[in-house]
Hints:
CATH topology: Jelly Rolls
Structural class: alpha+beta
Distance between the termini: 51 Å
Number of domains: 1
Largest sheet: 8 strands, mixed
Radius of gyration: 20 Å
CATH architecture: Sandwich
Strand order of the largest sheet: 1-2-10-7-12-5-4-3
Helix content: 25-40%
CATH superfamily: B-lactam Antibiotic, Isopenicillin N Synthase, Chain
Amino acid sequence: MHLFKQHAVRDHAAASAAIPVIDYGPYFAGEPGALAQLAEQIRHACENVGFLYVLNHGVPQETIDRGFAASKRFHALPLEEKLKLRLNENNIGYMPMNASVQGASTVHQATKPNQNESFFVSHDRAADHPDVLAGLSLRGQNQWPVGMPDLRADMMAYFQAVRAMCTRMLPGFAVALGLDPDHFAPFFANEEHANLRFLHYPPQTDTSDNAFGAAPHTDNSFMTALARTDVPGLAVRLASGEWFQPPVIPGTFLINLGNIMRRWSNDRFLSTPHGVINDSGADRYSIAYFHSPNPASTIECLPTCTSEVDPPRYPPAVYRDLVLEFYRKNYFHQKGHQSDAAKLAAD
């Protein structure tokens, strides 16, 4: 029996309440006292679940719909056209089927490649952008199919809308950790590390025990904002160890924390395992936006999350090195690439 079904949660009513729905409307509207109330809800969700639904998020439904339509147009292109945009060293472009494995995962030892294809975009930098000219890792240009300007416009409109939402959410996480509301802002300045992944999960022909659309893993982001259609497949591992399929709640984004937030909070906030199996018989699409600090940022355990009896569990580290290490373990095209630090040491 498949992992997600063998250990599936049985009490669905209780599980449905496990991932809280948090209304961001009052805070985004600037209501007095809303930030403190929001922070308490965030703290509870992040310490106990690592997932939350965001209601009244401010992203227009039309922007979301156009993002999904653009994703479907892209994935409908002939494979030879998509392969012209093959994923590069900056993890921007097209990743075909069987091109990734959850090698960095400590949740489950996957033995088969993930059964999904993905198109990654980031900040739409011009050719004369200083970081592009310098060839700086993780700061490259997007790759776009020729003759599809509307696709580019719709994908970047989605990118900017969800990016703005996540930026507005940062103070809530800071206050939830006992910090000033603007604590995280400097780490996300000057173009944070942001990736938008348009995912397509074809119906799986192999649904055996160790076959996944995306094998169980944790994300490496600060946080991930996920939009889904009504085709099921996502499973989240609850604190009980059981796997639960979170429902699609109209008008919400599903947010989960990643390993960077867990590292920053000294394991106080959870980076919760999740994965996908598409045994629905239908094509499944989702859009994952990963919001993380500027690659040059140093990630060090927060003072509000450490003490004499609970010292830092992680040494300070540059985010660029952390994410490149994650990429090398997960993406076949990245294996063998050196980090910037290793390249400098070798010169």
